[in-house]
Amino acid sequence: MPVASFPLTTSPWIPVLDQGAHGQREVGLLEALAGAHRLSLAHTSSAQGLVLLRLLAAVFDAACGPRTETEWDKAWTAQTLDVPAITAYLERWEERLDLFHPEQPALQSGALTAFPRGPEVLHPGSVSGASGRWFHPELRCEEPLAPYPAPEAARLLLRLLAFDVAGIKRAAPGDPAARRGKLYGAQIGPLAAVTHLHLTTPGGHLKDMILLSLPPQPRAAGDAPVWERDTPPAPVRTRPATGRLDLLTWPNRRIRLHATGQGEVDAVALHDGDRLQDGWETVHRLDPMTAWTTTAKRKQAPLDFLNAAHWPVPWQAARLLDASADLPRTSGAVDHAIAAAERGTLPAALPLHAALSRTRHSNAHKSVISDIPVETLPLGTAGQLADPGARQDLAAMARRADRLDDRLRKVTAALTGLPGDLVASRMYLSDLDRAWENAVRTHAANPEQARTAWRGELRRAADLKIDAFPVRTPLEREKVRAVVHQPTPRRAAAPAPARPKPRDEAAAGRQKRGGGPKAPAYEAFGGRYTLSQIARLPQCVVTYTTLRTRVVEQGWNVEEAATTAGTRGPGRAQQH
Q1: Angle ∠(33,37,43) on CA atoms, nearest 5
Q2: How many domains does the chain have?
Q3: From residue 45, how far is each of 41, 49, 372 by CA, in Å?
Q4: Is residue 93, in this structure, part of any structural domain at all?
Q5: Which residues pair with 271 in a beta bridge?
Q6: What residue spans carry the region label Disordered (predicted)?
Q7: Contact 330, 338 (CB under 8 A)
Q8: d(CA 472, CA 477)
Q9: Alpha carbon of 480 to those of 237, 267, 411, 446: distances in Å?
Q10: DSSP labels for 120-146?
Q11: Dihedral angle sign, alpha carbons of residues 457, 458, 461, 466
Q12: CA–CA gap between residue 190 and residue 463 (Å, rounded)
């Protein structure tokens, strides 16, 4: 029987849109990178597009990735990527990039020799639990799934490596960590654990996407992609990542595909693989194609660009533009684009968008995936990114929307007395995608006009939610509206302490008898009140002690202090 071969370097398996051919076709790694100036991925808004982009970025980075800003600027302005260097690199490693190599199959473990699973484990629905079988009837059939052609198997292999779920895994034969043939505590992959982010341009091609995703840096000592290393051993192991290339091609699972003589995959070996030390900290440090928020404890956590109702929040990407915020949101790719814009390498009129994805698991064990959404959100033009004032202004507009969104739910719950979860399900700002795009576009030419228009759109969106919310009386609805839209005054800075005066015993005696200074009054809820009076207002949902601690000791805005239930501080990022 002939030995199957499918070199990923030259065999067609990556779906692309070809500017020259005016249609979709499939190419190998070499043609994808050599033609990156005229090709674009065919499925950018999908999990498949993400894993293909990350593999192409890793191959380019390993072959000839720019080491300095000067090299990156030269690569950006060149008509094509460095085709001779890419060709030489892929020719050198062609055997290691063969999907069915007998000893070192690409992205797999050549140490596996038994294939106990059918091709259904490669099916995307296999990680979605019962719902996966419900929506994919082919997984419910008594007949085994038909073998996968090599191109499709290669794409599904990448997806499984990136998104396989956690939980109990079947141990590889001879794994000393096995307990009764099973392994416990399998991790989800580095990509599935965080928020992915890469940058796009309207009508842009693979060349732009790859370069915008990879800040220039030299290869770290000892760093290498998985195909430059010996094939991963069958047993599970825990180790640190050696660098960016290692992380981008992390062997999260031990997989091996069994090929028929016709080059189709009819059986699979699937076991737990390398477990990453330090988790998020390593990914935050090494992977620029991620987005992060800073928690109140000054820790990094994946940025959530969806609200609790799982709808995308169109202004969230702009929060990444202000690194000076108290609890900044960051992304290596965004910081890289800002630096390139400040150098003048990116054309000032070039619009930039952030494509974000965050894997949604259905349970706390992360053993079932419910969705892998991919959303593209506007960032602004390169000219806006090059201007620190414009970046801060766009981030401030985004924070304004977040504050109103939060305030809308809190005030409604406080004034109606309804449970917070019932209010939250109805009171998220929505249908603002086009308004935010217009605001970002207008801001490039007229920031004041953009700010004014955005405030108006936010008010309109909030009013629509208030008008649709079931309340007891029209008066209650108008009360909610008035409090939601009431300007939030900034707390004035405390005056410098006066020089202490000599103690006056008589005055001290009068003070003990109730003649002390009056309690300070605050502008809040349309009036001027002391904290004691505010604590008795219907809008206040906390005790006087909590209110005083927040305002006096922690510096909260008085209205936020009064209407925020629980212990979460203003602006504190939610951890997911």
Answers
A1: 70
A2: 3
A3: 10, 6, 10
A4: yes
A5: 254
A6: 221-240, 482-521
A7: no
A8: 8
A9: 56, 61, 7, 33
A10: GGGSGGGGSHHHHHHH-GGGT-SSPPP
A11: negative
A12: 41
Burial of 143 (0-12, 13-18, 19+ CB in 10 A): exposed
SS (H, E, C) 430-459: CCCHHHHHHHHHHHCCCHHHHHHHHHHHHH
Q: What is the model's pLDDT at position 517?
A: 62
Residues 186 and 278 in one domain: yes
Instruction: Give the separation between CA 385 and CA 212, rounded to whole angstroms.
Output: 14
**Nearest CA-CA partner of 244 in 204, 283, 298:** 283
- Which helix (H) or strand (E) covers residue 355, if one does? strand 351-358
Among 346, 368, 386, the domain boundary falls at 386
> How far, in Å, CA of 545 to CA of 541, rounded?
12
Is there a single domain that holds both residue 231 and residue 241? yes
- Using a 10 angstrom Cβ sphere, with 0-12 exposed, 13-18 middle and 19 or more buried, the burial of residue 149 is middle
Q: Is the pLDDT of residue 513 over 50?
A: no
pLDDT in tens, 25-45: 999 999 999 999 999 999 888
Sole residue written with tokens 């890469």:
198
What 8-state DSSP symbol labels residue 76? H
Does one domain contain both 296 and 391? no
What's the CA dihedral at 477, 479, 480, 481 to 10 degrees?
Answer: 90
Contact 350, 76 (CB under 8 A): no
69 and 99 both lie in a single domain? yes
* 94-121 pLDDT tens trace: 999 999 999 999 999 999 999 999 999 9
Q: What share of the chain is helix, strand, coil (3-state, %, to 5)?
A: 40, 15, 40
**In terms of domains, do 355 and 405 share one?**
no
* CA distance linking residue 199 with residue 208, whole number of Å: 9
- The β-bridge partners of 378 are 353
Domain C-terminal end among 369, 386, 403: 386
Q: What is the pLDDT of residue 40?
A: 95
Domain that holds residue 474: 387-485
Instruction: Specify the range with the lowest mean pLDDT, choosing from 241-255, 401-415, 482-496.
Output: 482-496
- Average per-residue pLDDT in the chain? 88
What is d(CA 158, CA 154) in angstroms, rounded to the nearest whole number?
7
pLDDT classification of 566: cutoffs 50, 70, 90: low
In a domain, 427, yes or no: yes
Domain contains 497: no
Name the DSSP letter for residue 231.
P
State the Cα–Cα distance between residues 195 and 182, nearest whole angstrom.
30
C-alpha span between 167 and 176 (Å, rounded): 18
Token representation of residue 57: 């970025």
Q: Looking at residue 1, what is its pLDDT?
A: 52
